[in-house]
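#struct-help
A.M.: can someone run this one for me? Single chain, 353 residues.
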Amino acid sequence: MTWTTATSLIPRRLIEASVAEGVQPDVTWPAIWAAGVVTSLLFFACIVAHEAAHTVVAVRTGIPVRSIRLFVFGGLAEMDREPDRPSQELMITIVGPVTSAVLGGLFLVLAGQLAAVSIPGVTAQWLGEMNLALVVFNLLPGFPLDGGRILRSIVWATTGDVVRGTRVASFVGSALGVALMAFGLIQFLASGGAVQWLWIAVIGWFLWSAARSGYRDAILRQQLHRYRIRDLLRPESGAVPFDGTVQEFIERGLYHDRFGLRPVVDAAGKLIGMLEGDDVRDVPLERRVETQLREIARPVDDMAVVAPDDLLSVVIDKAYETDRRLYFVVEDGYVLGIVDTVDVVNTLRARKR
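D.P.: on it. Structure tokens below:
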């Protein structure tokens, strides 16, 4: 973006302003490049402010936000769960475009106070226009854009069905994406290859793709709050006895199978520790026959354990943080089995409405 800003945007804007004002710009290339860097940083700061506004309202209404991700066409506040009611979604959503609109207005006011034929003047003008353009783009009524979420909240409030609201907003988003792709490609061919029309087609593809994947993700998130761990747990946990030896463990080939992380249980079946393949391999050869598994077991990590009555969202949240696939299902200290995040995703996809 810095390259485009410094080599195209700022010089072109300066030329246009100088023609309109009849004043020759007095700038240097180092100044233009410095302005390109600053303008790019300010633009992304505006996107962060937009997403931060979503984040603040989401947290204040009880929804934790994991992170903010930036993309070519904007950003995304990754919330731990979907809103519980349409009014909550509307509040979280609308504050983003309002923030961008305020920033756009402030930059345009600032541009009006600066010399028109100057780097600060043209960059402030562009930042104002871009923030307002982001408002317009984000308010397109296609999920998962802000406008699509607003549409979903309206349908949700009217019908009482969040799935129907998501379906309607995603359909509109897909239709808008296809329309933009077709319009951009037609204009690109008609203009003899003008790049700006190709960008319209790319934005259309982005919206179409985001609408489809956003719908799938939204349905999956809703399913995560409908089922509990016990609905999908596997009774086989790969547990090993605390008094077994390292040599027995190795001879049975347990250090390189699918479980990876294994629960170590006592004679009653209660969880007393965890064991990974590296823990076993690190034991010297001469000590493997006499070393019991409880001697090398590591303390139980709460992030590796879930309860049978936990929602499926709990294990998915832990998977985001730990990158693990298997989790122990424990109740009153006893290992009931394991839950596999791949099973969770596949089952929910099969059951989605």
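A.M.: thanks! The chain has a mean pLDDT of 84.
D.P.: also worth noting: Residues 29-60 form the longest helix (32 residues).
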